[in-house]
């Protein structure tokens, strides 16, 4: 089976590389085609357009930055819709809102294709090592057909039923993650301002009930004001915005997440959007004058 892969950003590149390493035939496309060069050296083919990739491949995966990019890849000239047809599957692995996912699903299925939304939880390191958590919904037959590829890219895949459910679940997950990071940042700042050693804080958290892989992975760099990008802050803020909209849609109060979103917005205004989302520390730490 040949798999198409649209979008070679920080996540998509690592995910598609894993597929190639495990012996899948992969055809790649990126808006800036030069980003395909490294994958070509590994054995990938290049499609000049999303339509060309879909024409060649039975299953095509998209991993792009936001809802606007996801829609563009599908609906624009030379997009996915020009070649999707019966017997072809499309998997949207980007983090987008449920409405966008449903719009793409309806367009794909109206042309006879099958559709699965499958956003991922995890950052660059998880993508690089094939340890993502994949949250899927949509056509169960396509999900089952693609499971070998999903197992290469992730350590666990969940199937949640109808289209929209996976998009909603991913937004809930990232709302929690984004809010945790702002609170963690405030704690680091308060510890240092109080004359405490932030390294001691990390050690205490690591052996207590609040120990998590997230805090363990991010903390050491954060206390050094070092923010190597695993998940860009601008994408975290986008996800917070979409999650808050989901809360509004369902009349769920999310005041803590709303406050966290303001911190991410401030960080973006400070030019920190391309750093890791842990760079929100630069906004919320109280000891920074």
UniProtKB/TrEMBL annotation:
This is Uncharacterized protein. PANTHER family: GLYOXYLATE_SUCCINIC SEMIALDEHYDE REDUCTASE 1 (PTHR43580:SF9), OXIDOREDUCTASE GLYR1-RELATED (PTHR43580). Catalyzes the NADPH-dependent reduction of glyoxylate to glycolate as well as succinic semialdehyde (SSA) to gamma-hydroxybutyrate in vitro. May function in redox homeostasis and play a role in oxidative stress tolerance by detoxifying glyoxylate and SSA generated in glycolate metabolism and GABA metabolism, respectively. The lineage of its organism: Eukaryota, Viridiplantae, Streptophyta, Embryophyta, Tracheophyta. It holds the Pfam family NAD_binding_2. GO terms for cellular component: cytosol. Residues 164-283 form the 3-hydroxyisobutyrate dehydrogenase-like NAD-binding domain. The active site is at residue 170. It comes from Linum tenue. Gene3D superfamilies: N-(1-d-carboxylethyl)-l-norvaline Dehydrogenase, domain 2, NAD(P)-binding Rossmann-like Domain. One of its GO terms (molecular function) is NADP binding. Residues 2-161 form the 6-phosphogluconate dehydrogenase NADP-binding domain. It comes from the Eukaryota. It catalyses: 4-hydroxybutanoate + NADP(+) = succinate semialdehyde + NADPH + H(+); glycolate + NADP(+) = glyoxylate + NADPH + H(+).
